[in-house]
Fold this sequence. Notes:
It is a single chain. This protein is an alpha/beta fold. The protein has two domains: 172 residues, Rossmann fold (3-Layer(aba) Sandwich); 146 residues, Rossmann fold, CATH 3.40.50. It is 43% helix and 19% strand. The protein contains 14 helices and twelve strands. Helix 11 links the parallel strand 9 and strand 10. Helix 3 packs parallel to helix 12. The radius of gyration is 21 Å and the shape is elongated. The termini are close together.
Amino acid sequence: MMHRRDFIMLLAGAPAWPAAARAQGERMRRIGVLTQYREGDSIAVPNLAAFRQKLRQLGWVEGYNLAIEYRGAAGQPDLFRQFAAELVAGKPDVLVASAGSGLEPLLQATRTTPIVFTSILDPVGRGYVESLARPGGNATGFMLFEFSIASKWLDLLKQTAPRLTRVAVVRDPTESGAGGQLGAVQAAASTLGIEVRPIDSRDPAGIERAITAFAQQPNGGLIATISTSGQANSSTIIMLAARHKLPTIFPLRHYAADDGALMSYGPDQVEMWRQTAGYVDRVLRGEKPGELAVQAPTKYELVINLKTAKALGLTVPPTMLIAADEVIE
């Protein structure tokens, strides 16, 4: 069966020379891209394919009127800083940053080159922009999600595991956005009669101790929020969830589709990269980032891993399977 992402990649491989590009006859424009993933990484490939495809549709063709310089720092802070400096030194027309780990070093390196960001959590709270409606400065783009989405994680977990009475929220309390995500879960939990326990550990050993202690009592589940340490320790969280039979939900697709978590619910990142290309096009045509509103995602996706559900002894309701964007069997 061909999934939507495979179809996008097929389209991305097809030759495309839009009439708009042939008619422009203008100078070569340059885009610098900084993310945490290497260009050939399985997470990066569909995102970049959608980004390039949308740019072609808008008249920007690599090798004709566009050059893209890509850097993936693989989560290494020193590399992020090095690559940010290299990209800025190349004097690109636009910079693209994915997640705060990519955006922060670019903002430190330049306050003049336009930056379009994607997958940023709490851009106002982190000081990246002045406001969502009027970002000011040289950066704008697309936030990862609004905090209210965290209440949906608990609802989905409860639907999948009806006996759920306790949930541990794995987070990094030092990061902006940690309180907002936890608060949304707590608000939803109060109406569902579910006890919420934050796990505020940043290292694998601390996470293992906390989850192991939490799992000593029955009817528990896990919510893994967005944080740098959460992403770095995701394999530990998924391993412990399997060991202790804890249904777990993550905010991004690949944790359920590729890494074995029970579920994920969050923004369609392929669509976000497509929208990012739209903002890059507007900047290349003269609009100022500080005047383009920061936008929230318009499309979310639910992924359910039936292999994991079976291992946990859970029967996923048919209504959820119908609603799912992707089911891993």
